[in-house]
Input
Amino acid sequence: MLHKLIRRKPERQNQTLAERISQSKNEHIPAHIAIIMDGNGRWAKKRALPRVAGHHEGMKTVRKITRLANDLGVRALTVYAFSTENWKRPKLEVDFIMRLPEEFLGKYLPELIEQNVKVVMMGENETLPKHTQEAVRKAMEQTKDNTGLVLNFALNYGSRAEIAQAMQKIAQQIQEGTIDHTDVNEDLISQHLMTCDLPEPDLLIRTSGEVRLSNFMLWQLAYTEFWFTDTLWPDFDEACLLDAVESYQNRNRRYGGLKGEETN
Ligand code: V07
Output
């Protein structure tokens, strides 16, 4: 009893990053983290910079967070880079954003390869600019055999469209007679989503104070823990990711014995 009071773990906020990382690794690490990277425009506005400066800074955050997630042993990291709604933004802003995959990969693909990261994307590829498609295609090709973190870019992605597309594929198979309508169950639907090769997200992070899903992974997030923060995406750093992971681990520890009972 007494030793618990005297030899308490140091407060996590006073620990160095390295200490927090190694402590987190001793506990259950979320296998899949999904992130809605919000607040790039607001970050720029606060500095009287153009919105695109915020998107550019946000791109550097993706690199930073990928490196830490991989180091922690996270298996998959999905980042919402561009939604089907984002086409409504001014054309010049969209044109700039669509150059970011090339810039990101031009700068960071060598280190992603070095870190054994596998790059994949989900979303409607065909309506992206050709130069964007080509950059992403090359990165996926060059990293396809990597066995470390899967870095999944949601690019021109919308969850309802994804579900509708899965339904079309399933309906077609029923019509062709390769499956029966009674074969349609949760597993079959999951297998037809763009995330069919990934575990379901354990942790969803949304930055910038917005508390909604915005058509992101609606099916896949059914049992996911949510972490919302006011931090703007360009300001989101290693300590912020550790805050989210530690909170996930605390919840897990608290409810660990009650899986499937009070947690649903
Ligand atoms: C984008 C930066 C992050 C904040 C959110 C909006 C802007 C990295 C990529 C990317 C995508 C595919 C890929 C490699 C990198 C990216 C878009 C926007 C469209 F293979 N950041 N980033 N793509 N932003």
